[in-house]
């Protein structure tokens, strides 16, 4: 069953000082954000978010099916990290497969570093939640690195099973485990996790406010939250929304990858501010991920890649055909690769 | 699903007060050996909801755990206890069955060892 993803309504996050609404409340137009992105906190203002009018369960099923179908293919060609690599900007060297894998690991390390997780801080991290865990690459890496317990959640039963099997094969079963659960309704008590990790899963959340609220809820006092996600560019002063051509580009990507809503990095910062998080930082890493999609396309166009794609099914094929749009989005400055981190007060 | 995870899972249906623990209905339980790590276990002991662990273990067919965990000082030297704790916490796997919300009776299925905690539209 496919999710219908025509974004036909503007739904907004409530302005600062008010309780944040979810998409279930009637959509209303709000004045736009005029926040500019800086490396510290963004300027304040109310924000507008474009959302797809789709039933949540249809979207969840669509996401689950997409990953059920495509995870095996991805793993075969790229391994167990389902996220962008982090590259030095202007690096024109054509990397080998292992170079890309190293870049994916570097993405994890750079994210932890950006969030302020020093060697000293690492020792305090005992329990981690990986929100949108894929087949568990980040979880296993972090659990090994910190000796921490890591729980991952994904909507895809295929991914969860595979993630558990990989953990077992790496003798990490005592430390990591994976469940099928919804990031918007995390099945955990408040304040359980010293580190809340969301590596490229925010794109799938139809309700960014709810997504962020859940991340904050399950974070322990003093715990850190790390969100690495695809965003659209920040809106300029006086801008109501993205340009129609920009919106159109995102719509075409949304349909294939089950991305119901895009927001900007500043929107995330505003949300975190409204929830009184501390030490909120953000950055634009678009330049650092530029080599990634061309590399993915190159692997798709190899003999092995093409055969595997054809075997995998329509969702995979459509996904592959959509990848040039991602490159276009980045090149034209519509799509940004953002990191937003913060700490929950004690 | 192992009990170390069960000890963290709650029912998140809207309006439910008695979210934890979830009762286990076991259909298939398997045992998988895990390396014994006393330091890890001592550290975990402070974080575990003991009654939930004992009840969960019983539902999976393991009745060796004491009703109350020993004091932390005694635990240091009580290897027999640590081994039972280790077995219950880490080595019992619920492969097939359900996690049941004590308040609503809603069953969250466990399939191939993976619990599915996704709520329906009307539960949110």
Automatic annotation (TrEMBL), chain A:
Keyword field contains Methyltransferase: yes
Alphabetical keyword list: Methyltransferase, S-adenosyl-L-methionine, Transferase
Segments for region (SAM motif II): 191-199
CDD domains given in the database record: AdoMet_MTases (cd02440)
Region (SAM motif I): 128-137
InterPro entries cross-referenced by the UniProt entry: Methyltransf_11 (IPR013216), PiNMT-like (IPR025774), SAM-dependent_MTases_sf (IPR029063)
Region described as Disordered: 16-42
GO molecular function: methyltransferase activity
Residues annotated as domain Methyltransferase type: 129-227
Region entry SAM motif III, spans: 218-227
One GO-annotated biological process of the protein: methylation
Compositionally biased intervals (Low complexity): 16-34
Family: Belongs to the class I-like SAM-binding methyltransferase superfamily. gTMT family.
PANTHER family, A to Z: MAGNESIUM PROTOPORPHYRIN IX METHYLTRANSFERASE, CHLOROPLASTIC-RELATED, METHYLTRANSFERASE
Annotated protein name in UniProt: Methyltransferase type 11 domain-containing protein
Automatic annotation (TrEMBL), chain B:
Cited Gene3D superfamilies: 2.20.25.10
CDD domains associated with the record: Trm112-like
InterPro entries: Trm112, Trm112-like
SUPFAM superfamilies hit by this protein: Trm112p-like
Superkingdom in the source lineage: Eukaryota
Family: Belongs to the TRM112 family.
Assembly: Interacts with TRM9.
The protein's name: Multifunctional methyltransferase subunit TRM112-like protein At1g78190
Organism annotation: Eruca vesicaria subsp. sativa (Garden rocket)
């Amino acid at each position: 069953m496919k999710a219908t993803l025509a974004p036909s309504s503007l739904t907004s996050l409530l302005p600062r000082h008010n309780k944040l609404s979810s998409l279930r409340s009637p959509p209303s137009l709000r004045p736009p954000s005029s926040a500019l992105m800086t490396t510290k906190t963004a300027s304040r203002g109310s924000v507008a978010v474009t959302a797809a009018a789709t039933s949540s369960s249809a979207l969840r099923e669509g996401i689950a099916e997409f990953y059920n179908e495509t995870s095996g293919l991805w793993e075969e060609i790229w391994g167990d990290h389902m996220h962008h690599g982090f590259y030095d900007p202007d690096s024109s060297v054509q990397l080998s497969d292992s170079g890309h894998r190293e870049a994916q690991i570097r993405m994890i390390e750079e994210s932890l570093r950006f969030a302020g997780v020093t060697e000293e801080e690492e020792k305090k991290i005992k329990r981690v939640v990986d929100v949108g865990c894929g087949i568990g690459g980040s979880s296993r890496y972090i659990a090994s690195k910190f000796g921490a317990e890591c729980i991952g959640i994904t909507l895809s039963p295929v991914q969860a099973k595979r993630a558990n099997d990989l953990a077992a094969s790496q003798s990490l079963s005592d430390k990591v485990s994976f469940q099928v659960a919804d990031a918007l309704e995390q099945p955990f008590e408040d304040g359980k996790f010293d580190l809340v990790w969301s590596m490229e899963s925010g794109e799938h959340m139809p309700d960014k406010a709810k997504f962020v609220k859940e991340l904050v809820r399950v974070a322990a006092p003093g715990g850190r939250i790390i969100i690495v996600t695809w965003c659209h560019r920040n809106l300029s002063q006086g801008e109501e929304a993205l340009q129609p051509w920009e919106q159109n580009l995102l719509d075409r990507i949304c349909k294939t990858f089950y991305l119901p809503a895009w927001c900007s990095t500043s929107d995330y910062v505003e949300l975190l501010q409204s929830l009184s998080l501390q030490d909120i930082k953000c950055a634009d890493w678009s330049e650092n991920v530029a080599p990634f999609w061309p590399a993915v396309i190159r692997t798709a166009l190899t003999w092995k890649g093409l055969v595997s794609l054809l075997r995998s099914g329509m969702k995979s094929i459509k996904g592959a055909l959509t990848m040039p749009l991602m490159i276009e989005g980045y090149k034209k400055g519509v799509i940004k690769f953002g990191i937003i981190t913060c700490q929950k007060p004690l | 699903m192992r009990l170390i995870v069960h000890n963290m899972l709650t029912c998140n249906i809207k309006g439910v007060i008695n979210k934890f623990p979830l009762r286990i209905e076991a259909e298939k339980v398997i045992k998988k050996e895990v390396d014994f790590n006393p330091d890890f276990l001592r550290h975990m002991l402070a974080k575990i909801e003991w009654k939930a662990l004992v009840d969960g273990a019983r539902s999976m067919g393991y009745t060796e755990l004491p009703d109350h965990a020993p004091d932390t000082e005694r635990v240091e030297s009580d290897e027999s206890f640590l081994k039972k704790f280790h077995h219950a916490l880490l080595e019992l796997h619920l492969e097939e069955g359900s996690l049941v919300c004590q308040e609503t009776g809603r069953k969250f299925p466990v399939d191939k060892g993976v619990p599915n905690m996704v709520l329906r539209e009307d539960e949110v």
